[in-house]
């Protein structure tokens, strides 16, 4: 269940700004009335975060970003304000959410998810003195005050595929993507390549829950559960879901069937809301969005902001496999070998499905 947090009293640069932020699903803030400029320290550091649909409490992608924001709050003294996207909202809603954060003095502003790319480009262009970061997207025409924080999801997913192939007794595994987008296809491509690196004869079921412009595939556990059940009925015994909170439904179905689930973005076996299923979560492909968010905010505070496109790969610790539960301890040698091959450059992972 999504956590709700009371807003602390705060002096904002515009009373209309806070009203608009609240309407956009704002989560929390801290006391400060000072705006940040090229760099900031202490209470003058005001960070705005606009979450993707699902928001804080999704047990996955957004929660990973939230951990980075929480660390910036505790270790850097940042004052923060959080707002989230709503399923089915218009592009103008995203733009207004970012505008409200800017008008309320938040700088930098972090947009969580590729769905914000057009809105970030537009609002950043109109506010050249404000720094923006966008996670999981890079646009060739984005303004200079926008930084892209991207990840090599295909590398971590390749390792998830190696784990799945080694654990599948049916020689039949599955992949569930939330939305059929270029980003999620990176997860599929890496996973399938990893599976087939172990055994090219293993069958990989692939299901996408929705296609753009319908992004509800990231926020519908019911759809995730139904898709997983369909793959289980076909004989899959290990299922990897890259589907935001929809993946929670997939994990439920797989665990109920006594098979193996692979989580995504956060260490899902360690999430309280999924505790009852942890014995059937083989591993999770952890995308360390929290690391990227914190490093970006820290660099901004120190007056040396990260610019352009910053990619976080396996070698840098941007992606990894979770070991909670010890379920992949027995295949550590195989995973270490695959990791070494990737980080050394010997193994190249596709970023789009092959064939």
TrEMBL record:
Similarity section: Belongs to the BMP lipoprotein family.
Record's subcellular location: Cell membrane
Organism ancestry: Bacteria, Bacillati, Actinomycetota, Actinomycetes, Kitasatosporales
Superkingdom in the source lineage: Bacteria
Gene3D superfamilies membership: 3.40.50.2300
Main subcellular localisation: membrane
Name of the protein described by the UniProt record: Basic membrane protein A
Keyword Ribonucleoprotein in annotation: no
Protein keywords: Cell membrane, Lipoprotein, Membrane, Signal
Membrane topology reported for the UniProt record: Lipid-anchor
Signal peptide: 1-22
Domain ABC transporter substrate-binding protein PnrA-like per the UniProt entry, residue ranges: 48-344
């Amino acid at each position: 269940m999504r956590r709700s947090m009371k807003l602390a009293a705060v002096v904002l640069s515009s009373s209309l700004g806070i009203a608009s932020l609240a309407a956009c699903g704002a989560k929390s803030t801290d006391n400060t009335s000072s705006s940040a400029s090229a760099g900031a320290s202490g209470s003058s550091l005001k960070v705005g975060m606009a979450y993707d649909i699902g928001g804080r409490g999704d047990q996955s992608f957004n929660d990973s970003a939230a951990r980075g924001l929480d660390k910036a709050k505790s270790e850097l003294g940042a004052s923060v304000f959080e707002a989230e996207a709503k399923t089915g909202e218009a592009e103008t809603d995203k733009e207004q959410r970012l505008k409200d954060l800017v008008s309320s003095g938040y700088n930098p502003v972090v947009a969580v998810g590729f769905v914000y790319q057009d809105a970030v480009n537009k609002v950043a262009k109109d506010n050249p003195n404000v720094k923006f970061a966008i996670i999981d997207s890079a646009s060739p025409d984005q303004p200079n005050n926008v930084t892209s924080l991207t990840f090599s999801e295909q590398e971590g997913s390749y390792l998830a595929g190696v784990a799945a192939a080694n654990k599948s007794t049916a020689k039949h595994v599955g992949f569930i993507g939330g939305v059929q987008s270029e980003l999620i296809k990176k997860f599929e491509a890496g996973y399938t390549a990893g599976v087939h690196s172990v055994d090219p004869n293993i069958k990989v079921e692939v299901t996408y829950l929705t296609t753009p412009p319908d992004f509800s595939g990231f926020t519908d556990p019911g759809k995730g559960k139904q898709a997983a059940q369909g793959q289980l009925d076909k004989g899959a015994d290990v299922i990897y879901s890259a589907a935001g909170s929809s993946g929670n439904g997939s994990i439920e179905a797989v665990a109920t069937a006594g098979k193996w689930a692979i989580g995504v973005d956060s260490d899902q076996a360690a999430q309280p809301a999924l505790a009852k299923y942890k014995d059937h979560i083989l591993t999770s492909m952890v995308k360390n969005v929290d690391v990227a968010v914190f490093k970006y905010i820290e660099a901004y505070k120190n007056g040396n902001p990260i610019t352009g496109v910053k990619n976080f790969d396996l070698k840098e610790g941007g992606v990894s496999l979770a070991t909670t539960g010890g379920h992949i301890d027995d295949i550590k040698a195989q995973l270490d070998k695959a990791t070494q091959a990737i980080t050394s450059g010997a193994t190249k992972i596709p970023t789009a499905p092959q064939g």
